[in-house]
């Protein structure tokens, strides 16, 4: 029988270390054990402090579970199916999920250590990549398999939280590829974009596009910075065409001080659950799925995908 893991909330902040504003660092704790299942009981906490989760079982597992149930959900449990030994826990964690009836996160889960304006943080352009070359190559290869072929008539793509590079396949072109990001100088340098919008989604999550505008929406290693993710995902659902694809990719690298609390408190498989929950509770999406495209586990940056498609209307 698979082990059952149980966790408790911890009400203190983690130890802080100096972080360079130009260099992303590892922003996850622990790893998911491939052959265990997860069961999290209901918790109640009245504190508004940053919540941190501590493992309360044996040292063989380093998973820090992200879910916290409050009184609105009653006795229901969040259950993730067990992964088979030797398979990626990230790929297994969104299978057979029993979601709580209501969105299980609180406002403090989306707080950040640095709550200064994002416009200040992203004011200076950073013409750097935030994951290593093998991870970039793995993401580009994945895109080459799932994006519509170049120069497909009528196809439009939206890259949110975009910058000077979107990691699409070399030479990739469509009549419309829109980048939405924080720094205009970076967006101007992005060769795949046909147009761009400068917008802070944490201040204004409303996407400035018509309903049913895009065939694909991408987001690269930035979903962990969204402080209003449900609003953003609802907007993504609105602007996607029926059957349109949304691809959220992430690693374990980030600007730690700007990532949301629930992200920096948890590990890679937990992150897949978090992103999957955004799709689920936004509504109008098919059940999300996760893919582990890490090129060299343990030797280079990991790379994960959580994706879903907009439901077809009747």
Structure commentary:
The chain is of the alpha/beta class and 314 residues long. The chain is 18% helix and 20% strand. It is built from 7 helices and 13 strands. The chain has helices at 89-92, 118-121, 133-146, 184-189, 229-239, 261-264, 268-282; strands spanning 7-10, 25-26, 38-40, 52-55, 78-80, 156-162, 176-181, 195-198, 214-220, 240-250, 253-254, 289-292, 304-309. The chain has a 7-stranded mixed sheet. Helix 5 (229-239) crosses helix 7. The model is unreliable at 1-23 and 29-85 (pLDDT under 50).
Gyration radius, rounded:
19 Å
Point out poorly predicted stretches. 1-23, 29-85
Estimate percent helicity.
10-25%
How many DSSP helices?
7
For the termini, the CA-CA separation is 43 Å
- Main pleated sheet: 7 strands, mixed
Count of extended strands: 13
Trace the largest sheet across and list its strands. 8-7-6-9-10-13-12
Order of helices and strands: EEEEEHHHEEHEEHEEHHEE
Query: DSSP strand (E) fraction?
Result: 15-25%
Structural classification: alpha/beta
Question: What is the approximate shape?
Answer: globular
Let me know the average pLDDT. Answer: 77
Properties at a glance:
314 residues, 13 strands, disordered N terminus, seven-stranded mixed β-sheet, globular
Question: Mind sketching the topology for me?
Answer:
Elements: E1 7-10, E2 25-26, E3 38-40, E4 52-55, E5 78-80, H1 89-92, H2 118-121, H3 133-146, E6 156-162, E7 176-181, H4 184-189, E8 195-198, E9 214-220, H5 229-239, E10 240-250, E11 253-254, H6 261-264, H7 268-282, E12 289-292, E13 304-309
Parallel strand pairs: 6-7, 6-9, 7-8, 9-10
Antiparallel strand pairs: 1-4, 2-11, 3-5, 10-13, 12-13
Helix pairs in contact: 5-7
């Amino acid at each position: 029988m698979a082990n059952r893991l149980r966790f408790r909330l911890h009400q203190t902040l983690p130890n802080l270390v100096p972080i360079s504003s130009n260099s992303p660092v590892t922003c996850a704790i622990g790893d998911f054990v491939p052959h265990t299942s997860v069961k999290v009981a209901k918790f109640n906490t009245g504190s508004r402090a940053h919540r941190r989760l501590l493992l309360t079982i044996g040292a063989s597992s380093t998973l820090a579970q992200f879910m916290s149930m409050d009184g609105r959900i009653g006795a229901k449990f969040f259950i993730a199916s067990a992964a088979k030994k030797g398979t990626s826990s990230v790929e297994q964690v969104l299978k057979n999920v029993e979601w709580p009836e209501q969105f299980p996160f609180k406002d403090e889960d989306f707080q950040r250590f640095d709550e200064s304006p994002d416009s200040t943080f992203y004011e200076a352009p950073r013409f750097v990549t935030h994951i290593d070359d093998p991870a970039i190559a793995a993401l580009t290869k994945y895109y080459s398999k799932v994006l519509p072929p170049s120069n497909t008539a009528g196809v439009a793509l939206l890259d949110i939280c975009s910058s000077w590079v979107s990691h699409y396949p070399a030479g990739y072109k469509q009549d419309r590829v829109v980048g939405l990001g924080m720094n205009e100088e970076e967006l101007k340098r992005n060769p795949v974009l046909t147009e761009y919008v400068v917008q802070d989604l944490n201040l204004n999550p409303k996407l400035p596009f018509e309903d049913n505008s895009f065939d694909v929406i991408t987001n690269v290693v930035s979903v962990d910075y969204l402080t209003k993710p449900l609003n953003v995902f609802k907007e993504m659902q609105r602007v996607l065409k029926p059957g349109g694809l949304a691809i959220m990719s992430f690693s374990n690298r980030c600007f730690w001080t700007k990532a949301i609390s629930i992200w920096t408190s948890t590990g890679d498989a937990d992150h897949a659950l978090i992103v999957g929950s955004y799709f689920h509770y936004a509504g109008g999406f098919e059940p999300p799925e996760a893919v582990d495209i890490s090129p060299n586990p343990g030797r280079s940056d990991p790379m994960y995908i959580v994706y879903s498609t907009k439901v077809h209307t009747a």
